[in-house]
From TrEMBL:
Residues 1-114 form the Response regulatory domain. The lineage of its organism: Bacteria, Pseudomonadati, Pseudomonadota, Betaproteobacteria, Burkholderiales. PANTHER family: RESPONSE REGULATORY DOMAIN-CONTAINING PROTEIN (PTHR44591:SF3), STRESS RESPONSE REGULATOR PROTEIN 1 (PTHR44591). The keyword Hydrolase does not apply. The modification 4-aspartylphosphate is found at D48. It comes from Cupriavidus lacunae. This is Response regulatory domain-containing protein. Keywords: Phosphoprotein. The keyword Phosphoprotein applies. One of its GO terms (biological process) is phosphorelay signal transduction system.
Amino acid sequence: MVVDDNDDAAQSLAALLRLDGHEVRVARDGMSALECLKTFRPDAILLDIGLPDLDGYEVARRIRAMPEQANVLVVALSGYGMPDHERREVTGIDHYLVKPADLRQLDAFLAGGRG
């Protein structure tokens, strides 16, 4: 799943993931992402931090509170720079990439899964 309010960025990343054979859903804000996760069970969520409603940290916290999403890989994508390690741990974000994301690194995270 790709969660990003920048439509061009979301669609471009989704297209690249589809080329690699992934099933992808796109959400434009945090609430839409959480709603989609009620029925969609992705292996990974690529989550923008700067969303218009809930920020990515709050979305990650809520995802981690969903028992059915316990094993989903959450990769934060942000133009804000790297957060401190404690903030990542508290929110349940597995990996953090600064935009534009290095696609080789992203592929490695997706291949490795959570943990």
